[in-house]
TrEMBL record:
The keyword RNA-binding does not apply. Signal peptide: none annotated. InterPro entries: Ptyr_pPase, Ptyr_pPase_sf. CDD domains: LMWP_ArsC (cd16345). The lineage of its organism: Bacteria, Pseudomonadati, Pseudomonadota, Betaproteobacteria, Burkholderiales. Keywords: Arsenical resistance. This is Protein tyrosine phosphatase. GO terms for biological process: response to arsenic-containing substance. Residues 8-152 form the Phosphotyrosine protein phosphatase I domain. Pfam families: LMWPc. The keyword NADP does not apply.
Length: 173
């Protein structure tokens, strides 16, 4: 992983790419700039986004309430990242159990992989305020793991070690 480019690209996958993966992409882009250098860049996609899928409005609101930019967020298929002109991914993290169990496309460069499972906040019962609280809780849980990820000593980490460290973070709450 020792390349002149210090930026690590991380792709977050979920089924529809409307909630958890969107939260993770935005949060990593917010946290990934360290001392003026973009050390991490987040991306997100879904295994089967619905036609005309958009990010969940409650996900966008949770991000905005946390002071995290929602600019440029969109729902898209993971096929976009298997194309030859797609950005190279260093790490691919599934954030829902459905996507973790699916056969992923071939990722150029064979990035490290990990699974960080989160309950779908879109399925939270109750009022809109209750649902928003579920999105905020999910964002907080993702944020905690991302803080650990961005503080790993990545300059000297190879793909397999990165994969193991990312997988170990799934055990931390």
């Amino acid at each position: 992983m020792s390349t002149p480019n210090p930026t690590l690209n991380v792709l977050f996958l979920c089924t529809h790419n409307s909630a958890r993966s969107i939260l993770a992409e935005a949060a990593l882009n917010h946290l990934g700039k360290v001392k003026g250098v973009q050390r991490f860049r987040g991306f997100s996609a879904g295994s089967s986004p619905r036609e005309n899928q958009q990010p969940n409005p409650l996900a966008l609101r949770a991000l905005q309430d946390a002071g995290i930019s929602t600019e440029g967020l969109s729902s898209k298929s993971w096929d976009v990242f298997a194309l030859p002109d797609a950005p190279h991914m260093d790490l691919v993290i599934t954030v829902c159990d459905n996507a973790a169990g699916e056969v992923c496309p071939y990722w150029p460069g064979q990035p490290a992989t990990a699974h960080w499972g989160y309950a779908d906040p879109s399925n939270a019962p109750g009022s809109e305020a209750d649902k928003l609280a579920a999105f905020k809780q999910t964002l907080l849980a993702i944020h905690r793991r991302l803080e650990l990820l961005i503080n790993l000593p990545l300059a000297s980490v190879d793909r397999l070690l990165l994969q193991q460290q990312a997988r170990d973070l799934a055990q931390k709450d």
